[in-house]
Amino acid sequence: MGRMLANMDSKSLARTRNKMMVAARIADALKAKGISQKQMAAQMGKTESEISEWLSGDRNFTIDTLTDIEGFLNIQLLDTKFIRVYRVINEPLKKPAEGKCVVLPHLCKWSSELKIAEESSMIMYEVG
Amino acid sequence: MQFKIVENESLTGGMAHIYSILIKDEEFTLLEQFFNDNEQYADDLNTILEKLFVMGHDIGCRRDHFKHEEGLPGDGVAALRVGNLRLYCLYFDRTAVIFGSGGFKPPEARAYQDVPELNEKAKQMKEIASIINKAIIEKDIVINDDGSLTINNWDYD
Predict the structure, then answer these.
(1) What are the backbone dihedrals phi and psi of residue A113, each rounded to the nearest 5 degrees, phi first?
(2) CB nearest to A5's CB, from B49, B59, B82
(3) Which of A36, A118, B46, B77 ranks highest by number of CB atoms within 10 Å?
(4) Has the ipTM of the complex gone over 0.85?
(5) Residue A108 phi, psi dihedral angles, 5° rounding
(6) pLDDT of residue A82
(7) Predicted confidence (pLDDT) per residue in B2-47, tens digit
(8) Which residues in chain B touch residue A57, judged by CB atoms under 8 angstroms apart?
């Protein structure tokens, strides 16, 4: 056992940790909202044993399942709210203030003659 | 049965204390024996070890990680299930679990009682749980809020 502890694979450990962490977040959300495993099963069209497996920390969730759970519990399990976007444009942009989201006034078209803008070409968009 | 409760310093961390049982005159704790006896299930053993490490260091021993009611009603005996391996324990709360031994449960077995070797390990854990629970009631063992144990004048230590 000591040898196994010394040789623990860090990637495998990280996978196990993440599975357990996600399960814990789901369990905490259920408790906070006063929803039983039985109720979650009924409302999501799953069996109780499947919900129990979700909470055990063993499940390797698909993105689809995590998305469904997010929607049911109104929690965030996948961090996809912000996507960093880089654009090459043919006119300079005003650099947005720190932390602000901006929408370009018109679409920028790709061209082989495009030059990189002198100002920052990095704009953060809020998705959805 | 005479034994002492031994903390596994490698698995214990900021979130939980992981203990096992050292039977008198034996070299290895029951948890170590479980790993020694089930070497052929290396993948599942690795997963169990990782789970224990994460419990101790990151997340605590949450109830959902275990299958409860594996012993007598209310005795706290639970099982950690990974693949077809079953590791029996005495579950107190998120901060403290005492692990015993366990073994392989064939897929076709309906319950551990149907597997003699596994039944023996579960029976051992139930006996240990009974002794420890009695000691807790009589305040010979105190489980502190952080999961550490204070062992007073206890015959079995």
Answers:
(1) -95, 5
(2) B49
(3) B77
(4) yes
(5) -95, 135
(6) 58
(7) 999 999 999 999 999 999 999 999 999 999 999 999 999 999 999 9
(8) 51, 62, 64-65
Domain ranges of chain B: 3-151
Give me the domain span that covers residue A62: 2-73
Q: Report the pLDDT value the prediction gives residue B157, as an integer from 0 to 100.
A: 56
**Domains: count for chain A:** 2
Residues A69 and A124 in one domain: no
CA torsion sign for B69, B78, B134, B118 is positive
The pLDDT, as a whole number, for residue B155 is 65
Which helix (H) or strand (E) covers residue B152, if one does?
Answer: none
Both tokens of A8, joined, read 């623990």
Find residues 101-120 of chain A whose CB sits inside 8 Å of chain B: none
Query: What is the pLDDT at residue B111?
Result: 85
A20 CB neighbours in chain B (<8 A) are 51, 54-55, 58-59, 65
Residues A29 and A48 both lie in one domain: yes
pLDDT of residue B72: 86
- For residue B33, the chain A residue with the least C-alpha distance is A1
Q: What pLDDT shows up at residue A119?
A: 38
Q: How far apart are the C-alpha atoms of A79 and A7, rounded to whole Å?
A: 32
Q: Does B94 touch chain A (CB under 8 A)?
A: no
| pLDDT of the residue at B153 | 74
* C-alpha–C-alpha distance, residues B18 and B10, integer Å: 9
**Cross-chain residue pair B65–A20, CB shorter than 8 Å:** yes
Residues A89 and A31 in one domain: no
A18-30 burial, b if ≥16 CB within 10 A, otherwise e? ebbebbbebbebb
Residue A113 above 60 pLDDT?
no
